[in-house]
Write a structure and sequence with these properties.
single chain, Quinone Oxidoreductase, Chain A, domain 1, Rossmann fold, seven-stranded mixed β-sheet, six-stranded parallel β-sheet, 17 strands, binds zinc ion, NAD(P)-bd_dom_sf, zinc ion binding, alcohol dehydrogenase (NAD+) activity
């Protein structure tokens, strides 16, 4: 089978022919049909996480395909089922977080495409307990990005306990934000889309946003205050200084959640914490429960990522497109 291997950081991926994986009784062999290209894959390829990633590795954690071999212990998946694999390849399953269905907090995880072979391949094997079925009315190309981008913003919104008619501000109308706007709207919220690019106004409206705030032309916190203050802010941008500009726009009891892994600090004024009882938090991916919910919610409400589909052999060009910020809005590799 053909795989794209990151042999060492800062070098193009190399195509190799590997033997088909042998599966154990508790595993599933997936024929990968589509694999999303996530910003995290760039961190692997560019060596940003060199202290964590052991090279060589086969990236790809937005996997959608068909179960072609099923170990005999995996009674809940049949050959021919449409399935996918997310960021979390497996977790310990016995810690309190795992038992409560909150696997992203488990200290003993294996990660698809980092510690285990990922989906930049014609086939991959995966533990049956983490292989997730894809609803019938969700096509595989659109399902793939939901395994990371989709579940990341869906889970973040769920953790924020949105109530109907609350004002949810989504910062960034990119690969993550355009899904967050659709989910927040379908959850019954009023949605404000925030972007530094005026071009995103019309698109945000098509996604369901009720308001648009141009963060390069206005003080976004002041604009949010004019709307009564944001009950929830989900920020999908990677720049701490951009996140910082929004905190003053939170309403009393407002919650701000971060999903972009910026490393610079943001400041919160204790006076605001006390007088407005605001909460500043974050979220990464989602466990199996929230992943299933994400897929079903997307299917039920007709929510799809905007994808550009490229053949597998263009993977290096696609990674360049992600690096240069050219992708509209999630890139997906087509394997078959
Ligand atoms: Zn990802
Ligand atoms: Zn655990």
């Amino acid at each position: 089978m053909k795989v794209a291997v990151c042999k060492e950081p800062k070098k193009p991926l190399v195509f190799e022919e590997w033997d088909m994986p042998e599966i154990n009784d508790d595993e599933v062999l997936i024929q990968v049909h589509y694999c999303g290209v996530c910003h995290s894959d760039l961190h692997i390829v560019d060596g940003d996480w060199a202290d964590w990633v052991s090279y060589p590795t086969v990236p790809g954690h937005e996997v959608a395909g068909i179960a072609v071999k099923v170990g005999k212990e995996v009674t809940w998946i049949k050959e021919g089922d449409r399935v996918g694999m997310p960021w979390i390849y497996s977790s310990c399953e016995v810690c309190n977080y795992c038992v409560e269905g909150d696997e992203p907090l488990c200290p003993n995880q294996e990660i698809t495409g980092i510690t285990k072979q990922g989906g930049y391949a014609e086939y991959m094997k995966a533990p049956g307990r983490f292989v997730t079925k894809i609803p019938d009315n969700l096509d595989l190309a659109h399902a793939a990005p939901l395994f990371c981008a989709g579940v990341t913003v869906y889970a973040a919104l769920k953790h924020l306990n949105i109530k109907p008619d609350e004002l949810v501000a989504v910062q960034g109308v990119g690969g993550l934000g355009h899904l967050a706007i659709q989910y927040a709207k379908a959850m019954g919220a009023k949605v404000a889309a925030l972007s530094h690019s005026q071009e995103k106004e019309e698109f945000s409206g098509e996604l369901g946003a009720d308001y648009f705030i141009n963060t390069s032309k206005t003080d976004p916190a002041e604009e949010l205050k004019k709307l009564g203050g944001a009950d929830v802010i989900l920020t999908t941008v990677f720049k701490s200084e951009a996140i910082q500009t929004l905190i003053g726009g939170l309403a009393p009891r407002g919650r701000l959640s971060v999903v972009g892994a910026a490393r610079d600090p943001i400041q919160v004024i204790p006076f605001d914490l006390i007088t407005k009882r605001i909460v500043v938090t974050g979220s990464a991916v989602g466990g199996r429960k929230l992943l299933r919910e994400t897929l079903q919610f997307s299917a039920d409400f007709g929510i799809k990522p905007l994808v550009e589909i490229h053949p597998f052999d263009k993977v290096n060009e696609v990674l360049d497109r992600v690096r240069e910020g050219k992708v509209r809005l999630r890139a997906v590799l087509k394997m078959v």
